[in-house]
TrEMBL record:
Organism: Rhynchospora pubera
Function: Functions as a two-component phosphorelay mediators between cytokinin sensor histidine kinases and response regulators (B-type ARRs). Plays an important role in propagating cytokinin signal transduction.
HPt domain: residues covered: 9-108
Identification of the protein by name: Histidine-containing phosphotransfer protein
Keywords: Cytokinin signaling pathway, Phosphoprotein, Two-component regulatory system
CDD domains (alphabetical): HPT
GO annotations of cellular component type: cytosol; nucleus
GO MF term set: histidine phosphotransfer kinase activity; protein histidine kinase binding
PANTHER family with a match to the protein in the record: PHOSPHORELAY INTERMEDIATE PROTEIN YPD1
InterPro entries per the UniProt record, alphabetical: AHP1-5/YPD1 (IPR045871), HPT_dom_sf (IPR036641), Sig_transdc_His_kin_Hpt_dom (IPR008207)
Domain remark from Swiss-Prot or TrEMBL: Histidine-containing phosphotransfer domain (HPt) contains an active histidine that mediates the phosphotransfer.
Superkingdom assignment: Eukaryota
């Protein structure tokens, strides 16, 4: 993500992170609701998982991408237990990623506040 940012748009990385961390919970909630239906619509779940996989790829969240790949395999096999397992893993990976990224942004701010420099950390909105 930071490699995509530039001096002309110093808030890019933070904006992308905010977008990712605000949209993913909605997708996860939607997946969870779909998996709890009496009759599970695996095609609908497949669409949501592909969306999550794409968002994860854009953000560089490789571990989430890997879970999505497994999730898609279970969808193709109509394997509810496998999908539920992946749902749990996806939740866990998302929460861990969010904690790590928030910690990174906090450290970057502290470095800048102390007079140091970090690439593309001139955004005042964070």
């Amino acid at each position: 993500m930071q490699q995509l940012g530039d001096e002309n748009d110093p808030c890019f990385v933070y904006e992308m992170a905010a977008l990712f961390f605000n949209s993913v919970p909605t997708q996860i909630d939607e997946l969870s609701k779909n998996l709890k239906q009496q009759v599970v619509d695996y095609k609908n779940i497949d669409v949501h998982v592909h969306t999550l996989k794409g968002a994860s790829a854009t953000f560089g969240a490789q571990r989430m991408i890997n879970v999505c790949i497994d999730f898609l395999k279970y969808c193709c096999a109509n394997d509810l237990q496998g999908c539920l397992k992946c749902m749990q893993q996806l939740n866990q990976e998302f929460l861990e990623l969010k904690i790590k990224v928030e910690a990174l942004f906090k450290v970057e701010k502290q470095i800048v506040a102390a007079g140091g420099s970090v690439p593309i950390v001139a955004c005042k909105n964070t």
